[in-house]
Design goal:
With 212 residues, this protein is mainly beta. It is 14% helix and 36% strand. It holds the Pfam family TSP1_spondin.
Length: 212
């Protein structure tokens, strides 16, 4: 039977004008559709998004997924596809993958990621393989890969990092002393020139007196 423009009684064993399908044919799923204050039954080959097919001896029904942010599910507590922007992991939906798991962006799934150990202590501050002779250097720490990812497309986190450090020993033992600053050299040179000029002036005055 058909009531109005839509065949709401398609696939029904029993149907009413106000409530639509009441009982479905074999293998079809009964779905109670709600539109505002009105609701009516439909008989479908597969359940819509957010529902899964529950088969019972009495009648097959579309039951709502109870998992948050799930688009389609296999059972009440196992999601097979999450809504856009969420990752699927063991039948649940997450904004980001749990610790120890990495995201496959194309499939929007969480898979076992790369596991790394704890960071080591910071190494000796050095520069150009020397631990002295400079004011600043670099120190490095590392960590080991404990478990490689199941898929090569998943990168491991960094296993080495460095930072700037101040050397404990500025001057190397037995090393050459640094040249004085240029400003000191200029002052010393100027002082020597003044002393030489004064000396020459004194000699000139003494010679001049003798000639007189």
């Amino acid at each position: 039977a058909s009531y109005g423009p839509n065949p709401i009684c398609k696939g029904c064993l029993s149907c009413s004008k106000d409530n639509g399908c009441i009982r479905c044919q074999h293998k079809l799923f009964f779905f109670l559709r709600r539109e505002g204050m009105r609701q009516y039954g439909e008989c479908l080959h597969s359940c819509p998004s957010g529902y899964y097919g529950l088969r019972t001896p009495d009648m097959n029904r579309c039951s709502r997924c109870r998992i948050e942010n799930c688009d389609s599910c296999f059972s009440r507590d196992f999601c097979t596809k999450c809504k856009t922007g969420f990752y699927s992991h063991r039948g649940r939906c997450f904004r980001g993958c749990p610790p120890g798991f990495a995201a496959l962006e194309g499939l929007m799934e969480c898979v076992e990621g790369c596991e790394v150990g704890q960071w080591s202590e910071w190494g000796t501050c050095s520069r150009n393989n020397k631990t002295c002779g400079f004011k600043w250097g670099l120190e490095t720490r590392t960590r080991q890969i404990v478990k490689k990812p199941a898929k090569d497309t998943i990168p491991c986190p960094t296993i080495a990092e460095s930072r700037r450090c101040k050397m404990a020993v500025r001057h190397c033992p037995g090393g050459k002393r640094r040249r004085p600053a240029k400003t000191k050299d200029k002052k010393k040179k100027k002082k020597n020139l003044m002393e030489r000029a004064q000396k020459q002036h004194s000699i000139f005055l003494a010679t001049d007196k003798t000639s007189q």
